[in-house]
Please model this.
Amino acid sequence: MKVRTRIAPSPTGHPHVGTLYMGLFNLIFAKANNGSFILRIEDTDQKRSRPEYEESIYESLRWIGLEWDEGPDIGGDYGSYKQSERSAIYTKYCDQLLKEGKAYKCFTTSEELDEMRIIAKKTGKKIGYDRRHRNLTPDEIKAFEDEGRSFVIRLKVPLTGEVVFKDEIKGIIKVPCADIDDQVLMKSDGLPTYHLANVIDDHLMEISHVIRGDEWVSSTPKHILINEAFGFKPPVYIHMPLLLGTDGKKLSKRKNPTSAYFYRDSGYLPEAFLNFLSLMGYSMEGDKEIYSLDEIIKTFNPERIGTSGAVFDVKKLDWINQQYMISSIEEKDLWGRIKDWGFNDEFMTKLMPLVHTRMKTFGDFIDLCGFFFVNHLHLNAEMLCPRKITPIQSCFILQTFLWNLEKNGWDKEAVEVSCKNLAEVFQAHFKKEIIPILFVTFTGKLTGPPLFDSIALLGEHRARARILEAIKLLGGISNKKMPLLQKAYDAQNGKELFANT
Ligand code: GLU
Model:
């Protein structure tokens, strides 16, 4: 069997480090077995998928030195490698299941589904949809269609028995069919669900091994059933341990910098980052910690893949990065590398207008804008609480600012809008409360170059990390308070919440 692996990211945000981690292991596995590594873009979620995120996937994978053998940008024999260009294929396959009576049209409305979910929750049932349209007669179907009702296509999941499959890391997994919902295969907009498109593509692209994160293991029984319905031979499944934060919980964007670009922009070396990622899920013979991609490919033994979650420990990453700095950059090249990273002409051209009129001597330069060139600002909570602002109020302001930026974007104008809105939402003093909190969060001081330009120039990834760091320093927002803040944010009215905390 020819080994073919793939990653199938969805272009709905900047690539999470987990995407690089999975890319790395898929590539290693393929290359260690003389196989091919494929990149497929799963962009069926039309609302959230964006072309710039697709570019971002290519760029970040290439940043750490991962190259794919087939993909949307380079082509290959199994294209198109972009799901939005494969709609006709999914429709054809789904029609086949309909014809064979293995799938059915379901006309249930969203209100009806909501009701069913509430009942399922009350009665402790694992499945939400009560299969009410599973056995409609042709006349009933026609009547619904004549009414102009929209429909989804669902898989007829067997009512009894078990789905049994082997995960190469976890062993045999068994799930009773009674616990599996009749999966939606086609949405009412005629687009396939992740499950349908993913299974069809893995089959047509002859993927031999599906190596993906543990969070997908609950989807696998559904994938097995879809494979069975089509009569496809399922690939081998390997679910890799998840990346965890140092708190032992899943590495999340809400708490940790998870974008690959944050690490690039913070001055980590791609080779070191790749080495670090591989250590997350794998241990080399003799516990060797510094090695190249070639070395791991040559000696790869799947039995050495870790079985429990891998802690994404930045201290370890720092140590590895330092080893690479020492061994792979000669002294004579060091300044060139630092210059390329943060002191390049492109960046300086953007920075100069911000500092031009604010220095008396060149000697003021670093004092004024050193915050652009450091990874940590050495803040304390007091600095983030001007006037009578409490730590939790400051957290609310910062979290809301982050939500605003995520909604409005990270350029100067968007930053300004996002910032001004805070004063309205919380009825806080713009100049004496909002601005000082933000100044300290991003620059570590109360004065400096213009704030909105500075945040925009810091860039989304580092700016986001600074917000998260400040929130953490202030004690964070509890799971109880977060939904209250979210509600106030949705209503654009946080005055009461702010005053009562
Ligand atoms: N589109 C899924 C993702 O965003 C693919 C998951 C899989 O590998 O099956 O990660």
Residues 8-10, 42, 194, 198, 212, 216 surround glutamic acid (CB under 6 Å). DSSP finds 21 helices and eleven strands in the chain. The chain has a mean pLDDT of 94.
